[in-house]
Design a protein that fits this description.
By secondary structure, this protein is an alpha/beta fold. The chain contains 16 helices and twelve strands. Helix 2 packs parallel to helix 13 and helix 12 crosses helix 13. The longest helix is centred in the last third of the chain and has 32 residues. The radius of gyration is 19 Å and the shape is globular.
Length: 355
């Protein structure tokens, strides 16, 4: 097994446990409430969850978020989860495609036979993207037949590793180059530490229209590398374990910038996704709940997870008196001080907060 494959196998095992959760920090979805509407004048079946995401139409605003690739085990995981995305009309994201880019290793990345029409997100780290030729990246997304490419930003995860990347210069120029070259959307995403308003504004200024929060409060990738004994020191890993912007806060930070937002990072269920949409997200993504379901019951359990999550979103919208996600984004919200301080002044979101 290659070093990359071994690392990804470790990630799959660790991310199915609670051992790599943030220690104190939460997503801050627990610091907000949707306002209950006792007279919604709606039927559950009348709630319309259809959503436009990265140029595709989804039946529900759900993405099976990035997990893995480049390992033999990824073949079964990705095939099953991509087929679930196809079945339910939701999105699916690959983990890092570095093996495909650098070695031509397609292990775990060829899923169109089971997901011919599903929305598929490619995934590549910003440092690898910077070092790669534009043509190599074009070929990579073409091989996997991706509908969009996520460029992931992961400085915290990298700098705690003794042999991780420590030079993140030229990132914005790299994103601009790839955005210009590809005929599919480029999505700028984090890897467990969230995106700030400043980052959202900078990528918007170069033409990016989609972002993925991957905020703090779920899996700590600093924690993952610490438990793998791959941190420079255990003390360093422990110190930065909880680094990052909570997921709900990241969505709030990115509001009113004209960006389509995918809320990932510690999203546990459909109610969290509904809360993210209420804050301004287009869709929500979950990785760990799908991985746990798959580990426990294979494809059938993962499919049930997708169906359950969609129903949870549907019920949340009905109880808030919203027929569509767009209507939910006009409803009032109650947020606690921990989340309120992240809401930018003068935004539409701020005007919807009660109290």
């Amino acid at each position: 097994m290659t070093t990359h494959a071994s690392r990804k196998a470790d990630h799959l095992d660790l991310c199915a446990t609670d051992d790599v959760a943030f220690q104190q920090k939460t997503t801050l979805f627990d610091a907000m409430d949707l306002v209950h509407d006792a007279l919604p004048e709606l039927a559950v079946d009348g709630v319309d969850l259809s959503t436009a995401l990265a140029g595709q139409s989804l039946r529900a605003p759900i993405v099976i978020a990035a997990m893995t690739g480049g390992t033999d085990r990824a073949v079964a995981v990705n095939k099953d989860l991509a087929s679930v995305a196809e079945e339910h009309g939701i999105g699916f994201g690959f983990g890092s495609m570095r093996p495909l880019l650098e070695d031509g290793d397609t292990t775990g990345y060829l899923v169109r036979d089971v997901a011919p029409t599903a929305l598929l997100f490619g995934n590549l780290g910003i440092v690898q993207a910077r070092e790669a030729s534009t043509q190599a990246i074009v070929d990579m997304v073409g091989t996997a037949d991706c509908n969009a490419l996520c460029i992931h930003l992961n400085p915290a995860m990298e700098v705690v590793q003794p042999e991780g990347d420590d030079d993140f210069s030229g990132g914005l120029e790299t994103i601009a180059r790839i955005h210009e070259a590809l005929d599919i959307p480029v999505i700028v995403k984090e890897t467990g530490c969230g995106l700030s308003r400043s980052v959202g504004q900078r990528v918007s200024d170069i033409g990016i229209r989609w972002v993925d929060t991957s905020g703090a409060g779920g899996t700590s990738w600093v924690g993952v590398e610490t438990l793998r004994a791959k941190a420079r020191t255990r003390e360093l890993g422990e110190l930065f374990w909880d680094w990052g912007i909570p997921t709900a806060a990241s969505v709030a930070q990115l509001s009113d910038l004209g960006l389509g937002i995918i809320a990932t990072g510690g999203v546990r269920h459909g109610l969290d996704i509904a809360k993210a949409i209420a804050l301004g997200a287009t869709a929500g993504g979950m990785a760990r709940p799908f991985l746990i379901s798959w580990n426990e019951g294979g494809r059938e359990a993962a499919s049930a997870q997708a169906e359950r999550t969609a129903m949870e979103i549907r019920i949340a919208l009905l109880l808030a008196g919203a027929r569509t996600p767009a209507e939910l984004q006009k409803r009032p919200l109650v947020v606690g001080d921990a989340l309120r301080r992240w809401v930018p002044a003068g935004t539409t979101l701020q005007g919807r907060l009660l109290g």
